[in-house]
Design brief:
eight-stranded antiparallel β-sheet, about 25% helix
């Protein structure tokens, strides 16, 4: 058969079934097409019909479609991440697009192997028309696994109705350091909470016939809270902390896929770590599914970790270690990997084992019999009213009340005027890995809907989350000469040494100087860690003028301006910014020369100035203060910046939001601060000045309505913190379940205790705990104990509590955590209502790794603690194990 290259537009119009693609010459279905045959037999038959190229493409996945006719998909492919259909976006159009692409592979390729359409769905499918639920960390803050299962079920229904059959979710990594930019995608810092939330999510998807991909095995954050930093934890830490959520995902929730991390584990890249992928995953846990790399991570051993000489050998070692599917970001990247297969670098047995795992999953999913979906069903389920109502319910349950001084909240409905301040009050941000949402409700909209015409609701933007002080000089203001012609941009001369010596290896025109060559070289024959550059040309000042010019980035550099040496930083020490104040006349052109050298790698260099940069934050704060003085109550909505590869060194509110809060508080008006973000925030400079603080996380498309409901008492704040909030960054990493110290926890100048502990959250009512019973109080190793406690709402309002059970091994052969979460139960109680809450303590919850690294339950005494947070223990008792 000739290779088939068809643009998607043509495929949408015509279908031709290739003769012989589905049946043998006798007219009988070939064995792998027979749905009555055992899956193992079907896999074996299909595998025997495949060429090496066919097998390779079943182990390769990318985002993409069939629009580029230069891309040859005639051998099939594992799967594609298929985007919505542009202008014709929406669930039905997305389903039609997936059907069209699926039909090509089923009906136009030799073997007719369907693809697995995959996508992201951390808290909702990331496509137009899909419901966006609260971010993962917010769902964890509900401490409600039943609610999580319902949310996941709704996401799975929307996802599957479009034809998407694999999600690269959930993130079950622990949020071990809140500086990490991806805390928002996690279920918090605790192994049990993350395990149970992940299990609920995975179970709903796998039950719906959609493959889940818990990630990133085994950790995606290292020292300093930095994304993908190497980890060198000992086996005990891995077993006790990082492995449990993944083990639960595999052995209890039965996830059929798993994604590796970018970083290295004990010196070996996670993507080719045999101890993890073969020893732990397949050996100890019996994993039968397939393992995929993170995007473009397979070659990370070559360009990042420097443990491989080539991408080909990196692919070989990854597959031999236990990787199955290579995930890349574009079609052309397949060539190097395919050559590794063709060159015989990868044993046939390894290839066949990986392909078998992929094919088995495709047969299990029923893709050979039912490759298409109904666009009408996709249109019906996506954004369904029940799902949007569930998004509101989940948002209610996730909101954490951190402070309620003087009982300010809930706000009185008799309030006559309120000012809502902050960009986050109107932006309705949804967080990372989010679709656009459906009719997003902002907090301002929610407050206005609550109060209607009974009160004046004012809005002031405030200074925003960031106030840039300078920007890269744009190409339109830069000029140079190239080939005798005046061009935009600067002339760049690149040398293969750090001293600007000899003739340049590369000369080109750079539109502007705004580069970040962390891994890549500036150009051919230029070493990424041993080069220098000279940029020359002129800069023209815009009509608004400029007052400062300089350089941001890593050392070293020299800037010559108007014939003079303006900045001399010709040394390697650090990275930062250096701007010089100048009087630059609008419309005038000045000659400049910027010289830069690199001798280590990790280049960042920008030519910057302050032209066109607004500096209005003071006036915006003044306008907000004026609005607050004319209002009875001020609501400040403040947020943070974070995300993938956007880790935070500082945890305070960015920009000038803290100055805003202080200025509003100084008016004497009652102040409520609503925090928007997916991680911890330090509050030292302002928390004592405000009356109330609410953490709304990224509350989803119905978030504005949910926040307003909590503010005015239509909903009780039910959320509890799944992470620890530090007082200051110097306390990090800080988690509640640390092991005992050799002396003390405190610093010379600060306590070792958090600002808000793990499990913390207030209600609009109060709860009494009583009648703790541990039955039996003494038991044999291997038995199960039951812990019961009575909880009573002693307030005048209905409210929500999360009853939390912690355990401490009082005497063990190895150091044990000061406390460990071993159970939790969210309860809703009417005024005066009392309920018994029960927990089971099974042997696996009492075990430890002894000095010989064996899991055992040691006889002894366990402190059983029940309370409202990890610090607020209301009742305690003893369990004796004999």
């Amino acid at each position: 058969m000739a290779r088939a290259r068809y643009p998607l537009a043509a495929l949408l119009l015509t279908w031709v079934v290739l003769p012989g693609s589905a049946a043998s010459q006798s007219g009988e279905p070939v064995p792998y097409r027979d749905p009555r045959a055992a899956i193992a037999d079907r896999v074996r038959d299909l595998l025997g019909r495949m060429t090496l190229e066919d097998k390779f493409w079943q182990l390769f996945m990318i985002p993409g479609d069939l629009d580029d006719p230069a891309n040859d998909y005639s051998h099939g492919i594992f799967g594609l991440q298929i985007a919505s259909a542009g202008e014709a976006s929406g669930a039905a159009a997305h389903a039609k697009r997936i059907n069209a692409i699926q039909r090509y592979f089923v009906e136009r390729t030799r073997l007719g192997i369907p693809i697995i359409p995959f996508d992201e769905a951390v808290h909702g499918l990331v496509r137009d028309g899909a419901t966006v639920f609260p971010q993962a960390i917010a769902l964890a803050a509900t401490w409600d696994t039943a609610l999580m299962a319902r949310v996941a079920g709704a996401i799975a229904r929307e996802t599957g109705s479009r034809g998407v059959r694999q999600v690269l979710s959930p993130v079950v990594n622990l949020a071990s350091d809140v500086r990490w930019g991806r805390v928002e995608e996690t279920y918090g810092e605790d192994p049990l909470l993350a395990s149970l939330m992940g299990r609920a999510f995975i179970g709903a998807f796998e039950h719906a016939g959609i493959v889940t991909t818990p990630k990133h095995f085994v950790a995606n954050v290292g020292e300093g809270g930095r994304d993908s930093y190497p980890i060198d934890y000992d086996q005990r830490f891995l077993e006790e902390n990082l492995f449990p959520p993944f083990k639960a995902a595999i052995t209890e929730a039965h996830a059929r896929s798993l994604m590796t991390a970018y970083n290295s584990v004990d010196g070996v890249p996670a993507t080719q770590n045999r101890a993890l992928l073969t020893g732990k995953l397949r050996g100890d846990w019996g994993f039968q599914g397939f393992v995929i790399s993170d995007a473009a991570a397979t070659a990370g051993a070559t360009v990042l970790h420097h443990t491989e000489a080539s991408t080909a050998t990196a692919a070989r070692d990854a597959l031999e270690a236990g990787l199955d599917v290579i995930f890349q970001s574009s079609y052309p990247q397949h060539r190097t990997y395919l050559e590794a297969f063709r060159a015989g670098l990868i044993p046939d047995s390894v290839i066949d084992a990986a392909v078998t795992r992929v094919l088995r999953t495709k047969f299990e999913l029923g893709l050979f019999e039912r490759p298409y979906v109904s666009p009408d069903s996709a249109a019906y389920w996506n954004g369904h009213s029940d799902h949007r109502a569930l998004a509101l319910e989940a948002a209610h349950a996730s909101i954490v009340l951190l402070k309620n001084g003087r009982g300010l909240l809930p706000l009185r409905r008799t309030v006559k005027s309120i000012v809502v301040i902050g960009r986050d009050a109107v932006e309705a941000r949804l967080g990372g890995y989010s679709g656009p949402g459906i009719g997003k409700v902002s907090i301002l909209d929610g407050v206005r809907a609550q109060l209607g015409r009974s009160a004046a609701v004012r809005y002031a933007a405030g200074p925003g989350r960031g106030t840039p002080e300078y920007v890269p000089i744009p190409a339109g203001q830069l000029a140079s000469v190239a080939d005798g012609q005046h061009v935009r941009g600067l002339r760049g001369e690149y040398f293969d040494n750090p001293a600007l010596e000899g003739e340049p290896r590369l000369v080109r025109t750079d539109p502007r100087v705004d580069f970040g060559w962390t891994l890549d070289s500036p150009g051919p024959d230029i070493p990424f860690d041993w080069f220098s550059v000279r940029w020359t040309g002129t800069v023209t000042v815009p009509p608004g003028g400029a007052h400062r010019i300089g350089v941001e980035g890593s050392d070293g550099y020299r800037l010559y301006f108007d014939g003079k040496l303006l900045i001399d930083n010709w040394k390697k020490r650090s990275s930062g910014s250096h701007l010089v104040a100048l009087t630059l006349q609008p419309g005038k052109s000045y000659p400049l020369r910027l010289e830069y050298f690199e001798s280590m790698g990790g280049t960042r260099v920008k030519l910057v100035w302050d032209a066109g940069v607004p500096n209005e934050w003071r006036s915006r704060i003044a306008a907000a203060v004026a609005a607050a003085r004319r209002s009875e109550v001020a609501l400040v909505v403040a947020g943070i910046e974070e995300g993938e590869f956007r880790d935070r060194a500082f945890l305070n509110l960015p920009g000038h939001q803290e100055e805003l809060i202080a200025a509003i508080a100084a008016t004497g008006r009652p102040v409520v601060v609503v925090l928007i973000g997916g991680s911890a925030i330090t509050m030292t400079h302002w928390i004592d000045r405000v009356d109330a603080v609410i953490d709304a996380w990224y509350p989803g498309e119905e978030g504005g309505r949910a926040v307003a409901d909590v503010l005015f008492g239509d909903a009780d704040p039910a959320g509890r913190l799944p992470i620890t909030f530090p007082i200051a960054e110097g306390q990090l990493p800080l988690s509640y379940n640390h092991k005992p110290t050799g002396r003390g926890d405190d610093y010379l100048d600060l306590t070792g205790q958090p600002l808000f502990p793990f499990g913390f959250g207030l209600s609009y009512t109060r709860f009494d705990y009583s009648d703790l019973r541990i039955e039996p109080a003494a038991m044999a190793v291997g038995d199960t104990a039951h812990v019961r406690v009575r909880v009573r709402n002693r307030g005048a309002r209905a409210g929500n509590e999360v009853v939390q059970l912690y355990l401490r091994d009082r005497l063990a052969s190895v150091a044990r955590p000061v406390q460990e979460l071993e159970g939790f139960a969210p309860v809703h109680l009417e005024p005066g209502e009392e309920r018994e809450v029960a927990f089971a303590l099974r042997p696996d919850q009492l075990r430890l790794l002894d000095r010989e690294m064996r899991w055992v339950v040691e006889p002894g005494s366990f402190r059983v603690m029940v309370g409202s947070s990890s610090r607020d223990i209301r009742l305690a008792g003893e369990l004796i194990v004999r």
